[in-house]
Structures are given as structure tokens and as C-alpha cells.
Design a protein that fits this description.
five-stranded parallel β-sheet, binds magnesium ion, 13 helices, seven-stranded parallel β-sheet, single chain, 2 domains, Rossmann fold, hydrolase, alpha/beta, globular, about 325 residues, about 40% helix
Length: about 325
């Protein structure tokens, strides 16, 4: 079982924090739920910053600009700077820049992703509405055409996702030289206040993977490409001194384990301690796959409010 930090004394908790110089913290489900901050969250993050830790707020959210995220953080009391904020669109654009991608991208995604691509000088097409305006057979025979300069299909959250976009993505991917990448693989975004699940990028990836018989490379958490992107402007992260805080086992905790960082599960979002117990049971019953083991966090705290209260005891 992960070590429950709520059993630590204040002194033990301070000693524990001192082990880390870099903290990568997820946002939704850890710091806030949509626009409502969790009690103790801003105090905890600000304490890390005041202690001199390098703090990154890392979200798989792709349709928010970092400038907008900064305004939100400041409104909710987090004393962070623009360079501390990482979105999956930002990571994807910088990943493409780092690998020297110099063709055009066909993008299923938001205008915010488009802006991140613009900032690193990557040409793109596809953002916005693209709907069928004739019979599908007529479309195939008369209107269907692909841009031969496209060298990648990028998939992300797209509220304008359509059958025509699916057709185009699948057909661009017939050329095996064309990259197939996705900002994130999240399945849904939960709006508990409205009892609504918003299907996320993972659902769109599945449709395109099914049609193209290819697998997308996911750039943001749980992949570790973002570590290379962060190293663009900062010294490389020392894995022994890095901590990932998150609420999702599949994204945050697997990311931390992939990167070799310590991991802390916070019980205010997607997963709870009982999910960890289920994984441990699976392992005990003989599942010793790395895939399953990577879901296990090192530490647990019910909420950042518990963390903050313990620090202030
Ligand atoms: Mg989360």
C-alpha cells in the first residue's frame, strides 16, 4: 500500500518534503474542480514555492492557453508564473519543434492548440468546423482531397469533431511516414456539479485508431516527452528529487513511474485508495505486468487540505 502521509507527524512531513526539489502537480481533481479551488490547495502549492521548490502545474487539458491558465491560477490564489504552467497542447507543439518536424500538420483539435503550433512555427490545417454538406458518395467522388504537404495527424480535444474529420485523419494516416500523435489520451472530463461526463481526446483517438489500424503516440502524461520539453528552459530534472502529485492513476501516477519520480495520489479526483487496493489485489493474484505495477503510487493523502493542515499543526 502507498504510505499514507496523514499518519506522518508534522516533522516527518517537513523532512519528507525536503527530499524533493521539483514538484509536478496535476490540476483538475488535485487543485481544483473546474473553476472551484479545493481548500488548502493554493496554500500547499504556495508553501512549496516559498520553500524554493521548482513547481510545475501540469495539465492534460489541451484547450486552454497557458496565459488563460495563469489568469485562473492567480484568481484562485496560486502564486505561479507562466513558465510554471504546462498544458498538453504546449508540450505537443514543443515536442514537434524538438524533433524538427517541418511539414504541415492536420489537426483535430482546438484553436488553443493551433495557437501553440503557431508559436513554434508549425503550419497546420483542420481546426474549426468541417461537416458533410452533400451525400457521402458525392463527397468521396468529387470533393475529397488531401493536402500532400501534411506530415502528421495531431489529435486533441475537438468539440467540432465530425465524420469528415475522421475520414481525413484516417486517409492521411494511410501514408505510414505521416506521424500519428495525440496531445493526451484522457477518456472523459467529469463535471460532477452538472452530473455530466464530457468525452475527451481518448474517444477521438480510438475512432481514428480503429479506422487507420494505427496506434497514436500520446505526448502528454503518462508519456515522459514533457520532461524533455521542460528541459528546454530549465536544468534537467533529477528523478531522485522529483515528486508527481495527481488524482489519476492512469495518467499522473503512471507518468511519475515512467519518469522514475516519486508519486503522491490525492483522493479528491478520479481515483481513491480503494482503486489502489484493487490493483494490489490484482498483483497478489498473479498479475505481475509492468503495466499494472506502474499504476501504484508511493504515497497517498486524502486531500491537499489534509496535507496543508498537517504542515500547519
Ligand atoms: Mg486530474
Amino acid at each position: 500500500m502507498p504510505v499514507d502521509l496523514s499518519n506522518f507527524s508534522q516533522k516527518e512531513l517537513h523532512e519528507w518534503i525536503n527530499k524533493f526539489d521539483t514538484i509536478l502537480c496535476d490540476c483538475d481533481g488535485v487543485l481544483w474542480s473546474y473553476n472551484t479551488p479545493f481548500p488548502g490547495a493554493s496554500e500547499t502549492v504556495n508553501t512549496f514555492i516559498n520553500l524554493g521548490k521548482r513547481v510545475y502545474l501540469v495539465t492534460n487539458h489541451s484547450h486552454i492557453l497557458r496565459e488563460e491558465m495563469l489568469a485562473k491560477c492567480h484568481k484562485l490564489g496560486f502564486n505561479v508564473k507562466l513558465e510554471d504552467l504546462v498544458t498538453s497542447s504546449y508540450v505537443t507543439a514543443h515536442y514537434l519543434k524538438q524533433i524538427g518536424f517541418n511539414k504541415k500538420a492536420y489537426v483535430i483539435g482546438s484553436k488553443e492548440l493551433g495557437k501553440e503550433l503557431d508559436e513554434v512555427g508549425i503550419e497546420h490545417i483542420g481546426i474549426g468546423q468541417d461537416n458533410l454538406d452533400c451525400d457521402i458518395v458525392q463527397y468521396v467522388m468529387k470533393k475529397y482531397e488531401l493536402d500532400e504537404n501534411v506530415g502528421a495527424v495531431i489529435v486533441s480535444f475537438d468539440a467540432n469533431f465530425s465524420y469528415i474529420k475522421l475520414c481525413k485523419a484516417v486517409n492521411y494516416l494511410k501514408d505510414k511516414n505521416n506521424l500519428f500523435i495525440a496531445t493526451n489520451g484522457d477518456r472523459y472530463f467529469d463535471f460532477p456539479k452538472w452530473n455530466f461526463l464530457l468525452p475527451e481526446t481518448g474517444c477521438l483517438i480510438n475512432a481514428i485508431e480503429c479506422g487507420s489500424s494505427r496506434l497514436a503516440t500520446i505526448i502528454s502524461k503518462p508519456s515522459t516527452y514533457l520532461c524533455n520539453v521542460l528541459a528546454e528552459n530549465s536544468p534537467p530534472i533529477n528523478p531522485k528529487k522529483a515528486l508527481v502529485i495527481g488524482d489519476s492513476l492512469r495518467t499522473d501516477i503512471v507518468f511519475g513511474n515512467n519518469a522514475g519520480y516519486e508519486t503522491l495520489l490525492v483522493g479528491t479526483g478520479v481515483n481513491e485508495l480503494k482503486d489502489v487496493e484493487e490493483i494490489i489485489e490484482k498483483i497478489k493474484s498473479g498479475d505481475d505486468s509492468q503495466e499494472t505495477k506502474k499504476l501504484l503510487p508511493n504515497f497517498y493523502i486524502p486531500s491537499l487540505n489534509d496535507f496543508h493542515k498537517k504542515l500547519m499543526e
